[in-house]
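Dear colleagues,

As part of the handover before I leave the project, I'm documenting each prediction I ran so the next person doesn't have to rerun anything. This entry is a single chain, and its sequence is reproduced below.
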Amino acid sequence: MNTELDMQLTSADANIRSNHKTDVILHAFDWPYDLIRERAKEISELGYKTVLVSPPMKSLKTDSGTQWWQRYQPQDYRVIDNQLGNTVQFKAMVEELKAYDLRVYVDVVFNHMANESSIRDDLEYPNHNDLRDYAKHKAYFDKQKLFGELSQPLFTEDDFEEAFGIEDWKDKWQVQSGRISGGPSDPGLPTLRANANVVKQQQNYLLALKDMGVKGFRIDAAKHMTLEHLELVWTEEITEGVHIFGEIITDGGATAEEYEIFLEPYLNRTRLGAYDFPLFNTVFEAMAEDGSLESLINPYCFGQALSRMRAITFAITHDIPNNDVFMDLVMDEEMEWLAYAYIMGRDGGVPLIYTDLDTSGIKDEAGLPRWKDAWRNPKMVAMIAFHNSVHGEVMESISATEDTLLFSRGEKGYVALNKADKGCVFEVKSEQPLYDCLSGKTYQSLNGMVKVNVDKKSSAMLLSLIT
């Protein structure tokens, strides 16, 4: 290898490994707060900027553990005390992440409270046993308190909507007034009413978390909340200086019924961000055997992606592998990696990387938990490095077919996707050699052109070696 090329490769390697983080979110789904704290240094070194954690509030915990969905059934906002940790541990996590220049985002669950119908008939939260527990272990709970008076209930029966289960999931009134339930025999999750007390308590909770250093909020089940409720809670004081985005699951973009019923009004009436389910559905269909990568050229123009400033982009969320109703949206491993290459390679939106502790039990081709170490997989780390390196550069399509897609990111980089069953060669106009972050290969320029080999069902993320 000649000296000049050696210097170029050294420069490229330093560039993709440098810690110039931008905006990538690590969704550390169902990770205990202590584990996140312990991994803060590694998370930072891998190029992440933000960590999204599961709901920090009081929810059911037992000596034998609890299921992930029980984290999404609040018992009280005024203390953090759940299977993942307590307020003291949460504060320590926030401080450690801040020391490594990492932001903390949290899940907030404001649509409903826990289904405790199996142990009581009333709608007082927290329940009488929990209030007695607060008094019995006063010293402990005083340390965990975020706000308020723990001798009194947070919510009473007057704070809830009339009980009925949602039957028509495309009826806006039912979805936003009824209870989320597992069927006729399930009493469901008590739905909160947007009255003065509920709004005040939810704002107190958000302000307490902001005071602790939280920089962002994911609104769980935002689809089930009325716009009036959202507007009352998320005031200018609450939203200032933080990133907020809602979970509004739709089965498509502008032409889909769910989009028109739930997501479009949310986008029109608020300034909040949202999960980009329109883009996800576009990518999912493009990666299918009969799909076309041509649909990924500029999906926003066709209403199949959210605006770049409001979108949270992803290839998988925690609901997809962990809820039977969404299981068919889990992509094949090769297609999911292609989807990530597109999400991390395109401009617009904030990429969210999902990882868990084998919550779903789904294994990869090697028989290992599929998403447990996805966050630090060398391929993912290379994608984050590419994303960070070209952040802010304009995306321009170069070529597209049903099975291939090639686009540039300014003069800094190129992304090539190949979902075909055989390898292909992409030709890129470049006077500079190109370094593939994913394979570690360098491709030389000949007469102003670079030929890049991409294996079947694979991708290349190329940085220009500009000296």
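The first strand starts at residue 25 and ends at 28. The two ends are 16 Å apart (CA to CA).

All the best with the project,
I.
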